[in-house]
Amino acid sequence: MNMNDGDDANNLLITGATVLTGNDNREIIEGGAVAISGDRIVAVGTSDDLRRQFPDVETLDATGKAVMPGFMNSHTHAVLLVLRGTVEDMSGDAIFGYMTPISFAMTDDERRALARLGCLEAIRSGTTTLVEPFRFITGYAQGMVETGMRLWLSENGADALTLKIRHGIYEYDRAFGQEFLDRITAMVEQFHNTEDGRVQCQMAAHAPDVCSPWMLGQLNELAQKYDLTRTVHLAQSPGEVKQVRAAYDRTPAEYLLDNDWLGPDVVAAHWTYCTDADIDLLAEHGVHMAHCPANSSRRGPHKVRVGRIQDAGVNIVLGTDNMTEDMFQALKIGSIIHRGGLGGQHEGGGVDPTPQMTFDAATRNGAKALGAEADLGSLEAGKKADLTILDLNQAHLRPIINLVSSIVHYANPSAVQSVMIDGRFVMRDGKVLTMDEDAVIAEAQEATVAAWHRLAETSGDIEIPPGLK
Ligand SMILES: [Zn+2]
Q1: C-alpha 33 to ligand 1 mean position (Å)
Q2: Rounded distance from Cα 139 to ligand 1 centre (Å)
Q3: How far is the CA of 363 from the centre of ligand 1 (A)?
């Protein structure tokens, strides 16, 4: 492949680095180099070879650094940073008790402020792709697009009156569902496959308990019409399992099967209360699992059976879900909390999941789940230039014996030096280039205060946290 020699082409040769390719052989190149032209990687190899191949290209010396594929956060709701420091420590139903009510109470500007804070945190923690299913997404997504993040956006369709669920009432309403369908169409028309492909849309059903068969059918029609991959929360709470049993006498996974919502184009989040039979059913249909170990374990160890799911051959991808966009947390907690008692026998022994398995779940597996493995997930010639540069000369990373293990167990956002998305630096040498960080932080704090006050006023029974009064 050749360098693009047009005047405006962005040609760069990163040299001297430890290159974690994440390719099929998980090759790590010491003294490695990555050649970039425009939005693509054109070559990966040793610095000596690539300097000879591209003698006239601008060079970035990355001695003492690691270059790795940018993290893919496969399931998050950046707007819910508005709850950071509250529901993590509460008992009871956080989803319908707080997350849903505040998502309706916020204004578009408030959602935008929190979503931009999420993008800032994501970039600072080495993430290049965010998969964001939420509500009212057309009202705030432009604020995310402008940060330079690679995005998969979706509007979480539902026709159960979600604000009533915290009062124990499941009531399905087509007019309410139609509002989501209208917003989904508007989102796809405005955002899908824009910014030279950097911004994509997905079809999202919020969860089996809040989508009637009619709603699931409507969402499927739109997914087919626009040729979109699909996503859904699955078996994430006892309340969901109970409602689907009461209404349809099915498990959530069986209910999705009945309504043609299982397939290799579906990423389902959580799987917490899946039975053995559910896991086999989901594996058989090629459904991907979005695992969000940090969030799921904040109120006690997450009971999902990751080992069983892994042994069934499911493609597991990592996400942060709520209250953080820091993928290092997902790596660390995901590698530790479900260790032991797993059935997998991998080459070389040791415990499952191995650091490499966890790292893959945060990179190449995410690309596969989105049907984007030809473009994303590893550093290889022909793929998109989405990469993160880590400064390895940090007390928390040295000594280095096994780099992947050190990253999974010990790295944190302070090691992230630079982040490139689509061939463009969004962060370079410690500075975020696409946002005014102070302004983003101040706006998010202000929006949080306003949103909580409105929630308290409109809900009647939700109180403002003492720290915000
Ligand atoms: Zn979620």
Answers
A1: 37
A2: 19
A3: 19
Q: Are 382 and 368 in contact (CB under 8 A)?
A: no
Is residue 441 one of the residues assigned to a domain? no
In terms of domains, do 169 and 144 share one? yes
- Of 79-88, 260-269, 345-354, the range with the lowest mean pLDDT is 345-354
CA of 80 to the centre of ligand 1 (A): 10
Same domain as 34, residue 158: no
Going from the Cα of 322 to the center of ligand 1, the distance in angstroms, rounded, reads 7
Residue with tokens 């420091």: 85
List pLDDT tens digits, range 259-271: 999 999 999 999 9
Cβ–Cβ under 8 Å, residues 292 and 321: yes
The number of domains in the chain is 2
* Distance of CA 446 from the midpoint of ligand 1 (Å): 24
Please give the residue range of the domain that contains residue 60.
Answer: 11-70+381-431
Q: How confident is the model at residue 349 (pLDDT cuts 50, 70, 90)?
A: low
Q: What distance in angstroms lies between residue 342's CA and the mean position of ligand 1's atoms?
A: 25
Residues present in the chain in total: 469
Q: What is the pTM of this model?
A: 0.96
DSSP β-ladder status, 416-421 and 387-391: antiparallel
Assess contact for 38 and 423: CB atoms under 8 A.
yes
Instruction: Give the separation between CA 3 and CA 448, rounded to whole angstroms.
Output: 46
Region 351-366: what's the mean pLDDT?
93
Q: Are residues 49 and 174 in the same domain?
A: no
The total of other beta-carbon atoms located within 10 Å of residue 290's CB is: 27
Would residue 3 count as lying in a domain? no
- Three-state SS for 241? helix
Pick from 6-20, 92-106, 145-159, 294-308 the range whose average pLDDT is largest: 145-159
354 Cα to the center of ligand 1, angstroms: 25
Q: Tell me the average pLDDT of the chain.
A: 94
The pair of three-digit structure tokens given for residue 189, joined into one six-digit string: 């028309």
Q: How many angstroms does the Cα of residue 35 sit away from the middle of ligand 1?
A: 36
Q: Is residue 436 part of a domain?
A: no
Residue 428 CA, ligand 1 centroid: distance in Å: 30
How do residues 421-468 score in pLDDT, each as one tens digit? Answer: 999 999 999 999 999 999 999 999 999 999 999 999 988 888 898 888
Q: Is residue 459 part of a domain?
A: no
Q: What is the CATH number of the domain that holds 105?
A: 3.20.20.140
Q: Find the 330 Cα to ligand 1 centroid distance in Å.
A: 14
Q: What is the CATH number of the domain that holds 17?
A: 2.30.40.10
Q: How far is the CA of 73 from the centre of ligand 1 (A)?
A: 12
